Structures are given as C-alpha cells and as structure tokens.
TrEMBL record:
Compartment list: Cell membrane
One of the record's GO molecular function terms: transmembrane transporter activity
Organism the protein comes from: Streptomyces luteoverticillatus
UniProt protein name: DHA2 family efflux MFS transporter permease subunit
UniProt entry keywords in alphabetical sequence: Antibiotic resistance, Cell membrane, Membrane, Transmembrane, Transmembrane helix, Transport
Keyword Cell membrane: yes
One BP annotation, GO: response to antibiotic
Lineage per the UniProt record: Bacteria, Bacillati, Actinomycetota, Actinomycetes, Kitasatosporales
Length: 466
C-alpha cells in the first residue's frame, strides 16, 4: 500500500453538523486525558514520594519527564499526522498513552515511574496537535471553527484545572497509583469512538522529517528544564551548572541555524515574525507557567506546611476548576463573536489579581486568600486558552493546522515544564515553616505572567466581520 493517493490534496469531506460536533466531542475527550495527566500528579507528589521513598527534588521529574517529552515531540507528531494521516497517528498515540499509563500504575521505583511518564509523553504528543488539526479540518466555516476551537481549548483548560481535584479524590479513595489506572478505560472508549466517528485527513502535501532539528529541540528543552530542576542541588554557579548553560546556548543556537537552512524545517521560525503568532506562543508559555507554579506551590504549602491530606488539598482547588469551567466556554463564545482581545484582557486581569492575593501568604494566614487566588487564577486561565489558540491557528491556512497547533501546544507544555521546575526549585530543601516565604517569588512570577497577557491582547487582531 502506498501513500501517494490524491487524498492529501483533496478537499476535506463535507460532514453533517451532527457529525462535525461529534468529531469535536471525541477529540476533546482524548485531549482531556492529556491535560489531566499534566496536573493530576501534582497533588499526589507528596504521597508518591512517601510511597517510593524519595524526596521533593526528585519528584519534579515525575511531572517534567512527561511535559518535556510532550513538548519536544509535539511539532514532529503534527507533521507526521499531516503526512501519514491524522486519525492513524491519533490512534497510535492513544495506544502508547494507555500502555504507558498502566506502566506508571505498577511502577516499583522512581526511575521506572519517570521512564514510564516519559513514554506517556510520547503518546500524548500524538494527541494534542492532531486533535486540533482534526477539529479544524472538520470545520470549514471560519466562525464555526472559532467556536469549535473555543470548546476544544475550554476542555483542555478544564482538564488542567480539574487535575488536582480528581487526583485528590482518587488518591484518598484508592491510593496514588489510581491516578494512572483511571486512564485505561478512557483510552479504550476513545479508541472505539475515533474508529467509528473520526474521518481520516492529511495535510495538503507530505513533509520530510527534520531529524537534526528534532534532536536539537529535544536537547535544548531537556537541558533547560534539567538545569532549572537540578540547579538548587548542584549550585547555580557550579562548574556543572555553567556547563549546562553553555550546552543550552549551543543547542538552541544550533536549532535556529539548522531550521533556517532547512527547506522543510521542524518549526517554521518565520511564523514568529508575525507579532500575533509570536505573542500567542509566548502568552501560552506565560499562562501555563502561572498555572503550574500555582498548583505546585499550593500543593506543598497545604500538605507540608499545614498538614492537609491530598483530598483536602485537591478539594481546595475546586474554585480554580470552577472558574475555568464557567469562563472557558464563555471565552470561546467571545472569541467567535468579537475576536481574542477582550478575553485576553480579562485573562490578564484575573491572573494578575490572583497572584497578588497570595504574595503575602504566611503559614498562619487564613486559607481564604488561597481560595480566592485559586478562583481568580482559574477564571484567568479559563479566559486565556481559547483566544491564544485562535490567534495562533487562525492566522495560518488550515493545511498547516497540524504544525500550527503543535507549536502552540509546545509552548503550553514548555510553560508547564518551566513552571514545575521553578516552583520545585523554590521549595526544594525548605522546611514547613519556611515554605510561605520561599514561595513569594513564585507568586510574583504568577503576577508578572498575568501582566504579560495585556501585551498579548494588544498584539492580537480582532476578528473580521466580513
């Protein structure tokens, strides 16, 4: 069987409205898993550490092994899907993700768990950009596509926000391994639904794989996050850290050099010359840095400094999930009706206010500022995802949807990995009495991320009403 069929260049099949929105639901279900597994582990880190007999510093790799691999492979997965078929790659990703989840659930040691999480990231990389490309391909009308992207982004954002709540409940009832077991039945259901409802689609033309670019991108991301995680232990000015900085510069410069010389680069760097696209990508990084710094710092503050159980700490995150749940669909509707600028301004305002609520947090401070911060940050997060996704993807032709979605998703996961690494670095080796003070730079960072979204809003373009 060959791959030279005219299908890639043919117009996408016209689906009924019911079928189009069914495709969206199926893709959103699968994407819920990717987002959930980015944050569901956060609330369980103390329990995982106790269960496997490891300390705080090593636990950061349980989260970032997943996010770094996911970020590094997203763009290549999008290109593979455009070349070999989006549904085919999507199904393969679900299979890898499901098997890796089961491996995480039975992990006998930290090393095994970290490796399994990395493999889980491989599977997830085949879901995130491909799901968005499938949705874009199924929605030819620009306004309907904008609403669909809003729903897709809302579900993904909700899954990130719901992770701590779901994780706390599962750990309380069944132990920390249950946060991985739960993926099994969802993956099986998604595989069946994809086979029945999702049509196959490809990009207009096949693209070559950029293996040198992929290797350099993976190295640059891995080294950057690795230095952030290990810096507090090895010393920021130690010879090993200095060597790490040098390698980051070399690999990043090498990546840019290779991409500029490739006829079909892994990442189309020319896209970043467009201010709306570049700012949307940076905005995605900022939003996910803010979310993950918030989740990790509050998890350790509530469980270590205040002695809360995982269930109580997860339940405290309900305002965040509520804010994201209510505001994400609203944001999608605003984007479809009036463009991305207004929801981005709202997102920036609420994220900034949320960070400021807990800058002065102490060990004996009332829990109310934390709950208020959760609510405000959840609202900001809910408003942010749809306009960022729409701004990034909406400026590109649908034929490049796989790679375009992958760049934005990469930015999100880079933000997640960096946020976890920074937050973990702030609290590593800090006793319960000092956690609140050590967390203060993290809350200032959350505030700064919120302020940056105002610049993203200014760079965004209003939707044409033609």
């Amino acid at each position: 069987m060959t791959t030279t069929s005219p299908a890639p260049s043919a117009a996408p099949p016209v689906l009924s409205a019911r079928r189009r929105w069914t495709v969206l639901v199926v893709c959103a279900l699968s994407m819920f898993l990717v987002g959930l597994d980015t944050t569901i582990v956060n609330v369980g880190l103390p329990e995982i550490g106790r269960g496997l007999g490891v300390g705080t510093r090593a636990l950061e790799w349980v989260v970032d092994a997943y996010t770094v691999v996911l970020a590094a492979l997203l763009i290549a997965s999008g290109a593979l899907a455009d070349r070999f078929g989006r549904r085919r790659v999507f199904q393969a990703g679900l299979g890898v993700f499901g098997v890796a989840s089961l491996a995480c659930a039975v992990a006998p040691s930290l090393g095994f768990l970290v490796v399994a999480r990395a493999v889980q990231g491989v599977g997830a990389s085949m879901l995130s950009p491909v799901a968005l490309a499938i949705v874009v391909n199924a929605m030819p009308d620009p306004r309907e596509r904008a609403r669909a992207i809003g729903v897709w982004a809302a579900v993904f954002g909700l899954s990130m926000a719901a992770g701590p709540v779901a994780g706390g409940g599962l750990i309380a009832a069944f132990g920390w391994r249950s946060v991985f077991w739960v993926n099994g039945p969802v993956v099986v259901a998604a595989l069946v639904l994809v086979a029945v409802f999702v049509p196959e689609s490809r990009g207009e033309r096949a693209r070559r794989l950029d293996l040198p670019g992929q290797a350099l991108l993976t190295a640059a991301l891995g080294l950057s996050v690795g230095v952030l995680i290990e810096g507090p232990r090895i010393g920021w000015a130690s010879p090993l850290a200095l060597a790490g900085y040098a390698l980051i510069v070399v690999t990043a410069a090498g990546f840019v050099r290779v991409e500029l010389r490739q006829s079909e680069p892994l990442m189309e760097l020319g896209l970043f010359r467009r201010p709306p696209f570049a700012m949307a990508a940076l905005g995605a990084v900022a939003v996910f840095v803010a979310l993950n710094v918030t989740l990790l710092l509050t998890t350790f503050h509530l469980q270590h400094a205040r002695g809360w159980t995982p269930l109580a700490a997860g339940t405290a995150a309900l305002p965040l999930a509520l804010g994201a749940t209510v505001c994400a669909p609203w944001s999608g509707a605003l984007v479809g009706r009036a463009g991305p600028r207004r929801p981005l301004v709202l997102a920036g305002g609420f994220l900034t206010a949320g960070g400021l609520c807990v800058v002065g947090l102490g060990r004996d401070t009332s829990v109310l500022p934390i709950l208020l911060a959760y609510l405000l940050i959840g609202i900001g997060f809910g408003f942010a995802n749809a306009p960022i996704t729409n701004t990034a993807v909406g400026g590109l032709p649908p034929s490049r949807a796989g790679v375009a979605g992958a760049i934005t998703s990469t930015a999100r996961q880079v933000g997640s990995a960096v946020g976890i690494a920074i937050a973990g670095g702030l609290v590593t080796g800090v006793g319960p009495a000092g956690l609140a003070g050590a967390s203060r730079p993290g809350w200032l960072l959350v505030t700064a991320c919120g302020l940056f979204l105002f610049a993203v809003a200014r760079a965004s373009r209003p939707t044409s009403r033609a």
